[in-house]
Structures are given as structure tokens and as C-alpha cells.
Specification:
CATH topology: Rossmann fold
Strand content: 25-35%
Bound molecules: S-adenosylmethionine
Helix content: 25-40%
CATH architecture: 3-Layer(aba) Sandwich
Structural class: alpha/beta
Number of strands: 7
Length: 198
């Protein structure tokens, strides 16, 4: 299948299944393969907008779970029917205290599909992307429970590979995956950390 066909296929599938974005199939593949989310989990989704990851997560965690989405882009009213979902319009790096998100404890799962604004200048985009990834890893001690799981989108580069190798001991399991629904020309892949060490 060519790139454009892949794009059309997942775009149309998302539309017909009433998902807010085609990115849903990336999280679904990651979760089916690595069992990241469980019923009853309390989850934070960093850069959630428009919210297909929230839709998927809301279903998997069920009535006893909660998912909190944060994005600078705003609050998507299309999610308001989901009872276990709360979304905030914020920059995630402005969160000093989890009480700002109405939670008292760290999260069972941290998800991040965030991407920086791209300039088209490859080295600059790679630097920005890596510094975003580093900042999210920096949040983990405050955000993620010991034993918790983590998924983050990364744009590949030599520096990213070096940085990620240094982080792998933070988790009992550390995996890299390029989901099938990611366009083959894309440099993005996902890092999956399971069982965060305290
Ligand atoms: C690829 S989209 C997420 C798509 C989402 N996973 C879905 O399935 O609908 C990435 C989002 O990250 C957000 N973002 C980037 N930097 C952010 C920051 N510092 N704080 C909050 N959101 C941020 C962007 O506004 C954008 O909406």
C-alpha cells in the first residue's frame, strides 16, 4: 500500500468509526501489543486534542477509571458526553501541582502524543522535538506512580536515540514501536515504558 493510500485508509476508518483522529490506531496497536491500559486506571493524556486517544482510553478504563486530557489548543466539546473524562486547556509545563488537575495522587499511566510546532528546518525540528521529550521525561517523577506505564511519541534522530538509551533503566520494560498506521516516510515512533521504577 502506498503512503497516500495508507493515509486514506486510516483516515476513512477513523471517520466511519466516529473517532476524532486517525491517531487512535497508533494507541490501539500499542495497547494491544504492550497492555498499557487497564480497567480502573487513572490516566493523563498530554497534548490530547482533538481527543481520539481520550476516546480509546475512556473505553478501556471504564466507569471506575478516569482520564484527564491537557492541551494548549482548548477544550473539545465532543468529549463532554464521556463521564470518565476531564479536559483542561493548559500548557502541560505550567502544571506545578497535580491538584490543578483535581487529582490527589500520581497517575497509573502517562500518555504523550505531543509534537512541537515544526519549522521545516530538519535539525531545528529534531532539537525541538527532543527537548520536548526530555521535558516530559522530567515530569515523570511528579506525574507517574511507581509501577506505572508510559507512552511517548518521539521523532527519530541520532541524539534522540542516545538520550533514550540513557532512560531505559527508568522502567522494567522499554520498547520502541513504529505503528502500522504511521506513514512510512514519517520519522515518528513511540517509546513504551512499563513498570516505572521509583
Ligand atoms: C498530534 S496532536 C494529539 C492528537 C491526539 N493524540 C488525538 O488522538 O486526538 C498533539 C497535540 O499536542 C499539543 N501540545 C504540544 N505542546 C503542548 C504543551 N506544551 N502543552 C499542552 N499541549 C501541547 C498540541 O496542541 C496538539 O494538539
Amino acid at each position: 500500500m502506498g503512503n497516500f493510500k495508507v493515509k486514506d485508509h486510516y483516515f476513512n476508518k477513523a471517520k466511519s468509526e466516529n473517532y476524532l483522529a486517525r491517531s487512535i490506531y497508533k494507541l490501539e496497536e500499542i495497547d494491544e501489543k504492550y497492555k498499557i491500559l487497564r480497567a480502573g486506571n487513572v490516566v493523563v493524556d498530554l497534548g490530547y486534542f482533538p481527543g481520539s486517544w481520550i476516546q480509546y482510553t475512556s473505553k478501556v478504563i471504564g466507569d471506575t477509571g478516569r482520564v484527564i486530557g491537557i492541551d494548549i489548543q482548548g477544550v473539545n466539546k465532543k468529549l463532554s458526553g464521556l463521564k470518565n473524562v476531564q479536559v483542561y486547556q493548559k500548557d502541560i509545563f505550567d502544571i506545578q501541582d497535580l491538584a490543578q488537575l483535581s487529582v490527589s495522587d500520581k497517575f497509573d499511566v502517562v500518555l504523550s502524543d505531543m509534537a512541537p510546532n515544526t519549522t521545516g528546518i530538519r535539525s531545528l525540528d529534531q532539537d525541538r522535538s527532543l527537548s520536548l521529550v526530555e521535558s516530559v521525561f522530567g515530569l515523570l517523577p511528579r506525574f507517574l506512580k511507581p509501577g506505572g506505564n508510559f507512552v511517548i511519541k518521539v521523532f527519530d534522530s541520532h541524539h534522540a536515540q542516545v538520550y533514550l538509551k540513557e532512560q531505559k533503566n527508568l522502567f522494567n520494560e522499554f520498547h520502541f514501536l513504529k505503528p502500522k498506521s504511521t506513514r512510512s516516510v514519517s520519522k515518528e515512533f513511540f517509546v513504551i515504558g512499563k513498570n516505572f521504577k521509583a
